[in-house]
Design a protein that fits this description.
single chain; 13 strands
């Protein structure tokens, strides 16, 4: 199984921190955020990685190289200076990802979710993805999706509402029929959820959307107090 790290965003909400450094290279407890993802994917046995890059992407490529230093092989999907958003970025990278399901990790999150558990799971017949969901954080109280007792992801406004964590196992077929160049991943996910072809699970462990300078600073303070990095 291959994995993709989304790393092409402009990081506008994190300015001025991201004016000279791409968001995935912002340090958390002294280590670039994206390095945690690479190391956790390697520890989970996922050694063929695709990283999409755009804003200051050359810095990411210089830092990670071909991945050999981390025990992985990295290929880069280079996007134009104006990013393609998450869905467009994945669609552009599909030739590098192949035809089998792949594990996706957003480059601007922090979590101790065990990636090996998701990597070991096979999608059911007709299923287009499995999402790792988290309880709604204060900044996103309305959530993204509903989750029923059978583990089926839906779009209902009632029932248990959860937030998409940025971690998922996706079939490339999720993007069948999408010809747009620029679009967010949430659009095909919502369509798939409306058709009942997504499953999900709730993760109640550590998770943070590193989306603002305030949340970034708070997470850094918390991680600096940890005796060691979280498990893969």
């Amino acid at each position: 199984m291959k994995a993709m790290i989304l790393a092409a965003g402009l990081g506008t909400r994190l300015r001025p921190l991201t004016e000279t450094l791409p968001k995935p290279l912002l340090p958390l407890a002294g280590k670039p955020m994206i390095v945690y993802h690479v190391e956790k994917l390697a520890a989970a046995g996922l050694t063929e990685l695709v990283v999409n890059v755009s804003w200051l992407g050359a810095l990411i490529e210089q830092h990670l190289g071909d991945g050999e230093a981390f025990g992985v092989a990295i290929r880069y999907s280079r996007e134009p200076e104006g990013p393609l958003d998450t869905g467009g970025g994945i669609r552009r990278a599909l030739p590098l990802l192949g035809e089998q399901p792949f594990l996706l990790v957003a480059g601007d999150i922090w979590s101790d979710y065990p990636l090996a558990r998701l990597a070991a799971r096979a999608l059911a017949e007709g299923e287009l993805g499995r999402l790792v969901l988290v309880p709604n954080p204060p900044q996103h109280a309305g959530g993204d999706f509903s989750l029923d007792a059978a583990g089926r992801v839906g779009t209902s406004a009632v029932g248990r509402r959860c937030t998409y964590s940025g971690i998922s196992l996706l079939s490339p077929r999720l993007l069948d029929g999408w010809s747009d160049t620029v679009f967010p991943l949430r659009e095909p996910l919502r369509q798939a959820a409306g058709r009942g072809v997504l499953s999900g699970e709730i993760w109640t462990g550590d998770w943070e959307d590193v989306g603002t300078p305030e949340r970034y600073a708070a997470l850094n303070r918390r991680l600096d107090r940890r005796p060691e990095s979280p498990p893969a």
